[in-house]
Amino acid sequence: MKKTNRILTILIFAFLYLPMLVLIVASFNTGKNLTVFESFTLGNYKDLFQDKDLLGLLGNSLLISILSTAIATGFGTFAAVGIHNLKPRMRKTVMSLTNIPMTNPDIVTGISLSLLFVFIGTTLLHQKESLNFWTLLIAHITFNLPYVILNVMPKLKQMDPALQDAAMDLGCTPAQSFFKVTLHEIMPGIISGAIMAFTMSLDDFVISYFVTGSGFLTLPIEIYSYTKKPMQPRVYAMFTLLFLLIFVLMVVMNLLQIRSERKKTAKQETTKSGRIFRRVCAGFCAVAIFFGAGWLIFSTRQDKVTLNVMNWGQNIADGSDETMDIIAAFEEKYPHIDVNYTTYESNESLYAKLAGGGVTVDLIIPSDYMIARLIDEDMLNPLNFDNIPNYKYVQERFKNTAYDPDNAYSVPYTWGTVGIIYNTKFVDEADVTGWELLWNEKYAGKILMFDNSRDAFGITQFLEGISINTTDTKELQQAANKLAQQNPLVRQYVMDQIYGAMEDENAWIAPYYAGDCMMMMDANENLQFYLPEEQGFNLFIDAMCVPKCSENQKEAELLINFLCEPEISGANMDYICYASPIEGARDHMDEYLAESQVIYPEDSILEKGTSYLFLPPEVNRLMDNLFMEVRISGGDTSESEEEPSALPVILTFAGLGIAAAFLFLPKKKTKRN
Amino acid sequence: MEFDGERILDGINLYFNDHEFLTLLGPSGCGKTTTLRIIGGFLTPTSGRVLFDGQCINDVPAYKRQINTVFQRYALFPHLDVYGNIAFGLKVAKLSKEEIQERVQDILAVVGLKGYEHRRIDSLSGGQQQRVAIARALVNRPKVLLLDEPLAALDLRLRKDMQNELKRIQQAMGITFIYVTHDQEEALSMSDTVVVMDKGRIQQIGKPEDIYNEPKNAFVADFIGESNILDGVMLADYKVKFFGRVFECVDKGFAPNEPVDVVIRPEDIDFVPAGEGHLVGTVTSVTFKGLNYDIIVDFRGFKWLIQTTDYHGEGETVGIRLNPEDIHIMHKSEYSGMFGDYSSYSAEYDELTEDVADEEE
Amino acid sequence: MKKNKSILLSAPYILWMLLFTLIPLGVMVFYAFTDPDTGAFTLGNLRDLGLFLPTLGTSVWYSLLSAIICLLLGYPVAYFIAHRGAVAQKILYMLIMLPMCMSFLLRTLAWVGLLETNGIINVILGKFGLGTVEAIGTPGAVILGMVYNYLPYMILPLYAIIVKIDSRLIEAAEDLGCNGLQVFGRVILPLSVPGILSGITMVFVPAVSTFYISQKLGGAETMLIGDIIEKQFKTSNNPNLGAALSLLLMLMVLVCTGIMNRFGNEDEEGGVVV
Asked: How many domains does chain C have?
């Protein structure tokens, strides 16, 4: 029995540490892949210390967790003293209030807070940016407070109440007696509460994810959105360093604890080193808080204009792989502008961010149909073309488009097609006949599908011969049924994650945007792009727009103008592998890309492409719901013809309600006795 | 004084004299600690006044009173060493370093803890902690020192030593001690004045001898020492009737035929051969107590405790004599009939009444 | 009385918690009963929930399963740790705590690297000629991710309770004729029930609401309720339906934790985490 326990424990520890070991090993890997260890290097650590963005995010994370921990600890300690002296029934009520953030799922806490902030900020105060640093800080303080309270309260309970009386007896005012006596007694509780709060806050993703706007990101949020390419190995390097840091901290704390326990049992006299250590700790905290606050003041009082740009992932040249660092070049040209660059995964998620309120964005690059929707819903500002002289380079066929007929709101950024990328090693060329490849049961479990309703429906509609801009419910239902047939074959519904899955050959077939496919083909030569020209395909334009919530439109227009310069556009396309709508840009591109049929298909093929048009909101919602249904109920959508019945929901709610009443009401009664 | 709507103290009227060793004595929950906390300033009475040198100090908070306290279980600060604890009050008062040093050293000499300055509190024995607590209070040179059951946590031997020590310190320093205890022996041996309390009321104030010899009611008689308490009728001065017999006594001033409580201390009773006694009864139990035997004798269904050095076996018929000075007469009170019957006597009787949680909470 | 003043210290806290925990939940309820387009009162969001009940069922099933697996794996480990020497206990405790402090996103991503078709595990299996295991996208991978992420949340409360069991009780049981197994079944296990319950709660609650684990390790068929809620907010832009879903999730969790508390003799101050 004991032996099996020991073996099991060893296995469990191996289980817990194996993934971390993988990450640590990967931090010394020259390759970017977790799976293949190419050769040993320390270069990732060098990269890490040169990556200002990553360090800045780490700084943000530390700032928010140090500040929120410090505030919550101070606030919580005093509150605990107050709660401790409340009458028992009141105390119980307050403690159940304290337990709400502890027992509620994080996602519920995050959502309810973000709804509150947006409701207050946007609906009531008409703020442009109702989700920001401060909301994040408030959220962190709110979920840190219970950790402090729950750690301090037991210490207060344990404390001999006569100690306070003794201090008062010896001439202390109540406040003095708190600081001279009580504080020392509850210090272990305060420290463990603070440590717990700090680690929870530093690693929090879920709540932060819902509560923060685009202006202030923390490391976990960035890591979450880092899915497009295999993670930069410098992130693993950071993980390794943090691991070491926390490991050392824990060992030191444990050693101190063991030492102080020994001291107690050994009945030694008080040593000065203990006191000195405490002072050093206090000093360290003070310095950390001071620097945190200083940093905050410094970072918020910058003279520079912060330009918030929101773009697709991997959709601007960033200097890697010998390309041009566009943002850096722009900032060099306009030193007064500081670009804050964030990404989104799909047009729909961009729309959700904008419509959800709470963010300020100055420049976005959505696709055609989304621009039409944004114009229709009055969410874009008309551009001032005086600031964009380079508009003259835009090719005529990208002017007077269906989505922006008056050329008032948008300047095209890229254009491209949607096709199929497949792995020639596994996929039989004979099967590559059209969109039906994505429904081929031979490749079940190896097919990826778009994780956004419009593109997923679009493909199905091409296959079924329905217009991709249909508003007919029956036709949409028909497409949904077809998608439902596909569901059992699909490995995952993905957007940016497609990169890893295709490049590592974990999946073999996927529909995606041509430029991204080009990038994947660069990474894995077995990959091939196919455009089902006979059935039709989506031809899309991504264009730059300034949303209504922008605060720096002029600077945004400067960037638009900058991106329209043929050299810049060409250099940019070298990285993102899309076609440029800018006259002359092609000449500045790498020859291999400029000649590629994937990027610049022949005009005869292009004519067979169709663009998405604006659809009314109810159609969008119907499409969203149908897609959700496909994903949830798998192959079975036969029932979805009828209106969803309210009965099961009512029954569920009633059941939950009765259960809750049954559980909580009699309990209260027994408590009162 | 009311607490949570419950009356804890009622009609307390007490005077403390300078340089006096005064003890508040009573069972757990009698209000003695509450009285002490009111004097110390940790509780504000709901009615009534606390006067100090003629001034009302009801609204003076604890930290401004010239009164210090030695707490139950000492309440020493665990994060400070011996020196830090004793110097605490002086540091709060912002005395000069040299003066603090000097006064701490002086008081350490008084309590006999020289050389212990930098010991951790949790490395001290109970008796040493006790001395630190006393030193910590006395170093501030209070006019009054309050001691809340300071010896309760010590074992018997140490308690005896500390009793003498406390008395010595009190006499050496010449300040007023107000001492709270539920241990009657401690109260009698140390105090100048004993205040017996029960149910929030003062039952009797007096010198230890008076309290013992002339208890005012059945409660005091029972609480201070052991007592057999009987119903009687005062026929006239110096004449009391109980058990159907008239006895001579030394008390007077009662109304004729007034019903009274009669107290007979167990150690005052002398055995005589059955034929010669005022009363005749049967021994029902004998317990050896070291110094004496505790013998329970049944007199017509009423059981008496008799403490004697003579052995009498169980079932033996014995007689007793009662001398007039052995009979104490008390007015009837609310306590009449509650005490003084040893029908359910057992050797653990004493311990059972103690160790009940203190008042409050 | 003097205590009144210190009570005032709790007032700002109570205010803060009301403002940032109770009122947000109120706002959430408000959204759940509001039409996304018109802003009028509606029960439509609740009606739409019907579609997601199977998903909720799946989420509950997966997370209960992973809570039970955590218990089965975690109990022997907690028991083992609790019966080491003082120093060894500290070290092992620390080693359990350590993963909790590290980014769970990256640790979960590492599992993706391990489990992928061409991942580390399959490469190793391949070297031994054992073929490949298609793990990613299966319910198994999701449950594994849950167990991996939340196992420490099970071990720590279990350890805390087991280490407190008075060894004299075990001796007493042995004295009264229990053999090793009986001691465990009749004394140790009943005494560790509070730890088991709080462990199950602490695994179940985050597991039932996760969306990251199922997004990374799950596939087309392993959508969880957390995914759907996240999508309502982050892509479908239907916060009203999202709020209704959250409300459902919250009620469900409330009932589940209520049932847990029912089983155990609940503590006055509620379960302290870790």
From this structure: 1
Interface test with A, best of B120, B141, B149 (most A CBs within 10 A): B120
Q: If contacts are CB pairs under 8 Å, which of residues 151-210 in chain A contact chain B?
A: 160, 162-163, 165-174, 176-177, 180-181, 184-185
Q: Within a domain: residue B218? A: no
Amino acid at A477: Q
| C1–chain B Cβ distance below 8 A for any pair | yes
Does a structural domain hold residue C128?
A: yes
Which residues 2-21 in chain C show a CB within 8 A of chain B? 2
Is a pLDDT exceeding 70 seen at residue A18? yes
DSSP string, A570-595: HHHHHHH--B--BTTGGGGS-HHHHT
What are the beta bridge partners of residue B293? Answer: B288, B308
A1 at C interface, C-beta within 8 A: yes
Chains near C, with 3+ CB pairs < 8 A?
Answer: A, B
Q: Do A162 and B71 touch (CB under 8 A)?
A: yes
pLDDT at A278: 64
3-state SS class at A534: coil
Q: Does C127 touch chain B if contact means CB atoms closer than 8 Å?
A: no
Q: Cβ separation of C243 and A115 shorter than 8 Å?
A: yes
Q: Indicate whether C163 belongs to any domain.
A: yes
A198-209, pLDDT tens digit by residue? 888 988 999 999
Min Cα distance B145 → chain A (Å) is 11
Angle between helices C86-101 and A183-203 (to 10 degrees): 40
Which residue among B163, B183, B210 closes a domain?
B210
Asked if residue C17 belongs to a domain, the reply is no
Q: Indicate the residue type of A372.
A: A
Angle at A472 between CA A470 and CA A475, to 5 degrees: 85
Provide the pLDDT for residue B289. 83
The string of pLDDT tens digits covering residues C215-250 is 888 887 788 999 889 988 888 788 888 999 999 899
To the nearest whole Å, the CA of C3 is away from the closest chain B CA by 10
Contact B134, B177 (CB under 8 A): no
CB A353 within 8 A of CB A376: no
User: pLDDT, tens digit, for every residue of B212-270?
Assistant: 888 888 888 888 888 888 888 888 888 888 888 888 888 888 888 888 888 888 888 88
A35/C11 touch (CB, cutoff 8 Å), yes or no: no
What's the average model confidence in pLDDT over A488-504?
86
What is the band of B64 on the pLDDT scale with cuts at 50, 70, 90?
confident
Q: What is the ipTM of this complex?
A: 0.90
Domain A305-412+553-597, CATH: 3.40.190.10
Position A383 confidence tier, pLDDT thresholds 50, 70, 90: very high
B359 domain-assigned: no
On chain C, the residues whose CB falls within 8 A of the CB of A625 are: 48, 51
Angle between helices A473-486 and A453-464 (to 10 degrees): 100
In a domain, C239, yes or no: yes
Q: Is residue B234 domain-shared with residue B194, that is, in the same domain?
A: no
Cα separation of the two ends of chain A: 45
Rounded-to-integer distance, Cα B77 and Cα B83, Å: 11
Return the CATH number of A46-265+282-298, one of 1.10.3720.10, 1.10.760.10, 3.40.630.30, 2.40.37.10.
1.10.3720.10
Closest residue in chain C to residue B42, using alpha carbons only: C2
Distance from CA of B109 to the nearest CA of A (A): 20
Chain-chain contact of A628 with C236 (C-beta, under 8 angstroms): yes
Residue A541 CA to its chain's centroid (Å): 25
Is residue B248 domain-shared with residue B204, that is, in the same domain? Answer: no
Q: Tell me the residue range of the domain where C186 lies.
A: 60-263
User: Which backbone phi and psi does B331 adopt, to 5 degrees?
Assistant: -65, 155
CB contacts of B34 in chain C (<8 Å) are none
- Domain with B73 in it: 2-210
What was the pLDDT predicted at A501? 85
Residue A266 pLDDT level (bands cut at 50, 70, 90): low
- Cβ contacts of C87 on chain A, cutoff 8 Å: 258
Residues of A within 8 A of C7 (CB-CB) are 82, 85-86
pLDDT classification of A274: cutoffs 50, 70, 90:
low
Give the pLDDT score at A602. Answer: 85
Average pLDDT for B111-125 = 86
User: What local confidence, expressed as pLDDT, does residue B350 receive?
Assistant: 42
